[in-house]
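queue> pop job 88
queue> type: inverse folding (structure -> sequence)
queue> payload:
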């Protein structure tokens, strides 16, 4: 029997290779996003609410943009300009920061000897566009067509104390190149710095851009599930009630008084207490120094976010923050019932583990019984088995 040819295996393998690379959080609030229409998006990014999970094709697209930068630098040098890709004083990529180190970004370069202004240095900003975007850019200019890019350059110019920037765009469909001089706007710079500081200081997320989950700017947003859906944020220090912004790009845990390194921030700890607004499907109704009680908005059922059960509580079982992140809101009620049946049960990466039933297939969970088991107890076990199967389907 002839084995059929495998179509597109190599190309799919390349996409999977890009997806296999770790996609990490950015540790600071980036100048590249400060002009974003949604302040909640900026805050969620800074607070590490969800790690980016771009598909391989998009990651390859990002890489294409980075590769184009070196080509444009070569071309600028080819026409006689002097280009500094790195800071001559440090040898590292040009970096700027503000707001006690919590805000900033990296420049594509600085150039001098450009035809339009041979004696004046300019910040360089390189972008790639599809044909539609490129055509709109030419028609409207960068400030109107790509205001986020304009704001990014404004930050770079202000923090570098350079009064102009050269914006260079490449049409990915035709390889046409567009260049535009952008001059520094001190008033806009002040507005953007104020915006950055205000968002950094906020302990709760700002208002959503839209209350409609189907809004065109919300529907495909990275944070849709946290803002409009049924997924709690990641359990790291920046999503915790105990973490506070501190000088010199640092964070402090108010629970133990320690300064948090970046690896520690990403890891979080067992005492994590989720910022209530990052549990979108429930309303906080009570709390203490290490716990918050919630009421599910649809079912009305109560549950607790905290490291352990709260003594004397009538609010139901307790969930660690990492469990809330792994368990969608539509299953949290069933999972609460499972925890009541099996007090040691925990949600782990879309599945459930318990001290007593770690090795038991979910198909067998509903078969567990004791002598003369009460019908209500047996029914609870059946619901627990169904919940476990639903969670395992998320893997």
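queue> result:
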């Amino acid at each position: 029997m002839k084995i059929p040819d495998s179509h597109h295996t190599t190309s799919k393998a390349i996409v999977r290779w890009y997806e296999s690379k770790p996609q990490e959080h950015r540790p600071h609030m980036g100048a590249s996003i400060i002009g974003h229409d949604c302040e909640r998006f900026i805050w969620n990014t800074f607070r590490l609410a969800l790690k980016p999970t771009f598909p391989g094709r998009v990651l390859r697209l990002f890489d294409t943009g980075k590769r184009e930068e070196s080509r444009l630098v070569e071309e600028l040098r080819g026409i006689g300009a002097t280009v500094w890709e790195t800071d001559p004083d440090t040898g590292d990529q040009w970096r700027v920061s503000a707001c006690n180190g919590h805000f900033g970004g990296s420049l594509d370069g600085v150039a001098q000897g450009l035809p339009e202004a041979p004696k004046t240095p300019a910040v360089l900003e390189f972008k790639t566009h599809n044909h539609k975007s490129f055509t709109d850019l030419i028609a409207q200019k960068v400030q109107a067509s790509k205001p986020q890019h304009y704001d990014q350059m404004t930050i770079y110019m202000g923090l570098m104390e350079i009064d102009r920037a050269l914006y260079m765009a490449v049409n990915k469909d035709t390889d046409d190149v567009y260049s535009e001089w952008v001059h520094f706007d001190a008033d806009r710079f002040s507005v953007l710095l104020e915006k950055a500081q205000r968002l950094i200081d906020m302990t709760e997320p700002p208002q959503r851009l839209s209350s409609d989950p189907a809004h065109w700017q919300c529907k495909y947003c990275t944070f849709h599930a946290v803002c409009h859906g049924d997924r709690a944020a990641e359990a790291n220090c920046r999503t915790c009630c105990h973490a506070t912004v501190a000088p010199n790009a640092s964070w402090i845990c108010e629970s133990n008084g320690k300064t948090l390194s970046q690896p520690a921030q990403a890891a979080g700890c067992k005492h994590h207490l989720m910022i209530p607004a990052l549990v979108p499907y429930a309303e906080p109704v009570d709390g203490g120094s290490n716990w918050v009680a919630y009421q599910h908005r649809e079912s009305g059922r109560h549950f607790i976010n905290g490291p352990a059960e709260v003594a004397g509580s009538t609010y139901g079982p307790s969930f660690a923050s990492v469990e809330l992140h792994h368990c969608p809101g539509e299953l949290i009620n069933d999972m609460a019932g499972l925890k009541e049946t099996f007090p040691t049960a925990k949600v782990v990466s879309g599945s459930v583990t318990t001290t007593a039933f770690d090795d038991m297939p979910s198909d067998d969970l509903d078969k567990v019984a004791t002598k003369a088991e009460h019908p209500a107890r047996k029914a609870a076990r059946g619901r627990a088995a169904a919940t476990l199967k639903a969670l395992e389907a998320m893997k």
